Amino acid sequence: MAGIGFELKKVLRQGGIMRFLGVSLAGTAIVAGPWLLSVLGIFLIQTYARLALLEAPLLFSSTIVYSYAFSLVLFGGLHYIFSRQVSDLIYKEKNRDAGSAQLSFLLATVVLAAAFGAAGIVPMRLHAIVAHPILFGMGAIGLFVVISANWVLLSFISLLKSYAGILLTYLGGALASFFGTFLLGRLWSTGGALLGYTVGQLLTVLVLYSMTLARFRPTRISLKGFRSYFRRYRMLFFAGLLYAWATWVDKVVFWFSFGSRVDGSWMRTFDLYDVPIFFSILTLIPGLIYFTIETETAFYPRLREFLRCIGSESYQKIQERKYAMIHSLGDSLRSQALLQLIVSATLILAAPAIGLALFGPGMNVPVLRVTLAAAFFHSLFLSLLIFLFYLEHYGRAAAAALVFFAVNCAASIAIAVFGETRLVGLSYLAGGLLGSVVAGIFLVRALRMFDHTLFIRASRG
């Protein structure tokens, strides 16, 4: 992501409110495009296309949410291996090999997602709830495939400089999903609505992939390189997988402990937690944009300078470069945390008004406040995790993600066992907090010993 950060920063330096808005929108589209616009799309559909969902509105929205959740739970770890592979290829200027790796992994993802999607749809009793169960099944499986493919493309669209095009593509896809839901829903009810929504998302994926072909045109299909990277970077895989599980485990536990079954399916919803948690996750966006534009771009040049001086400069110079890198990272992380803290604290104070204005009197304000606080630590943890990746401390990154997951999972189960619905959200908060502490300790130790680590690696050949 550092590449787009540098490009956006160049635009930002030119000044002007329009450029600032453009950079913010472009950064938002890339770091949170799929999730943010899907939330916006569901909101528009439920507000203005409600007639198309009269048959089974809860089944429609739950299918979309579960598709996003399980696409990450199942494939999250593999995405990290794939990103590492293509990053190395692009660094070596092997763009065609990178394009081949993308197409190969994309096809493998499509096949696996279709299989998992079918496994989730077959047990449902769709005929009992929707008039066109085959259309609904096609739409649900297709949606899971498309969403899974979209995450793969995110590794590439950040390298493209057509930021306005990326933003317009996501907006166009959201509008296509809206009109597809409205038009096909009027014809074939909920089955048609979901199929129409899927078509809009498919158009987004197809346009994004076509944008990557100009620079990353594939020449063959092979997963040999990916398998080699998987064997070499297993801890990176576990770090990504555990992070995805840590993010979703509390939702899954509460769905199946406190939630209500969605008619005709095995899915469950728990509005007391679902609504505030999904809103709170969106509040990560300011910190993610700051990370993309400022934190990462401030750290990367100093990391590069430090690496260049290893083996050619005096010990004193090496130490100076190292501590300049450490201080730069510390300053950037503090600024990012302060920005996210201001956003989170403001929303926590305004939670009663926000809950009433956006979600009505049924919003549980204490839960909303807890999840907003949890989102702050989630933002911090994610930044620390990425910097552990930078330093190639994948084992420590996996250990930190394990802490986040284990604490969130154990606390969620405890809340479920005791039936304390008033405490939902605290497990997510505790997991993010303790995970951030562990990740922070690991990062500080890794930075202080970075030169020694590099020397040891070099001596081992």
Question: How much helicity do the residues have?
Answer: over 70%
Q: For the report, how would you describe the main beta sheet?
A: 2 strands, antiparallel
CA gyration radius, whole angstroms: 22 Å
Q: How many independent structural domains?
A: 2
Q: What do the pLDDT scores average to?
A: 85
What does the overall shape look like? globular
Structural class: mainly alpha
Given as residue ranges, the uncertain stretches (5+ residues, pLDDT < 50) are 1-9
What is the tally of helical segments?
Answer: 16
Q: Which sequence of SSEs, written as H and E, runs from N to C?
A: HHHHHHHHEEHHHHHHHH
**Total number of β-strand segments?**
2
Q: Report the span from N to C terminus.
A: 29 Å
Strand residue percentage: under 5%
Structural overview:
By secondary structure, the protein is mainly α. 83% of the residues lie in helices and 1% in strands. It has 16 helices and two strands. Strands 1-2 form a two-stranded antiparallel ribbon. Helix 14 packs antiparallel against helix 15. It is globular. The two termini are 29 Å apart.
